[in-house]
Amino acid sequence: LIYIACSYATVYLIYMKFKATYDGNHDTFRVEFLIVPVGGLSFLVNHDFSPLEILWTFSIYLESVAILPQLFMISKTGEAETITTHYLFFLGLYRALYLVNWIWRYYFEGFFDLIAVVAGVVQTVLYCDFFYLYVTK
């Protein structure tokens, strides 16, 4: 419930309170270049070919690349507001801690989910460049 409430609060803040900070001139990333391949991959590589499993797999794959539009915007403009960099850093840290969770679960429970682990590694790798810039600045 806390996670869902925080997600709704984030969306509310983005579309209501901080709507004026959106820069449409620099936001040229084509999201369909993420959604279409991720949708196709979720149909091809999943645990069970059922609607809920495909939707779960789609959400895992999409979450792993969802940061690309923001990273594209930062690299295009060469700058970002402090609050944005802190948000991205902690979002990446949250995902990196997922990797620790999977190692823990494998070691103590013998549980291993290849789809979730690969998606988590991809997302963490995408954050590595941002982490380096965040720490050095």
Whole-number mean pLDDT: 87
- Count of helices? 6
Question: Are there runs of 5+ residues with pLDDT below 50, and where?
Answer: none
Order of helices and strands: HHHHHH
Helix content: over 70%
**Rg (CA only):** 16 Å
Largest sheet: none
Number of strands: 0
The rough form would be described as globular
Estimate what percentage of residues fall within beta strands. Answer: under 5%
- Structural domain count: 1
Structure characterization notes:
The protein has one domain (25-136). Helix 2 packs across helix 3, helix 3 runs parallel beside helix 6 (114-136) and helix 5 runs antiparallel to helix 6 (114-136). The longest helix is centred in the last third of the chain and has 28 residues, at 82-109. The chain has helices spanning 2-17, 32-44, 51-65, 68-77, 82-109, 114-136. It has 137 residues and is mainly alpha-helical. The protein is globular and about 45 Å long. The chain is built from six helices and no strands.
What descriptive keywords fit this protein?
137 residues, transmembrane helix, mainly alpha, 77% helix
Task: Reconstruct the topology from this structure.
Layout: H1 2-17, H2 32-44, H3 51-65, H4 68-77, H5 82-109, H6 114-136
InterPro entries: ER_ret_rcpt (IPR000133)
GO molecular function, one term: ER retention sequence binding
Protein name: ER lumen protein-retaining receptor
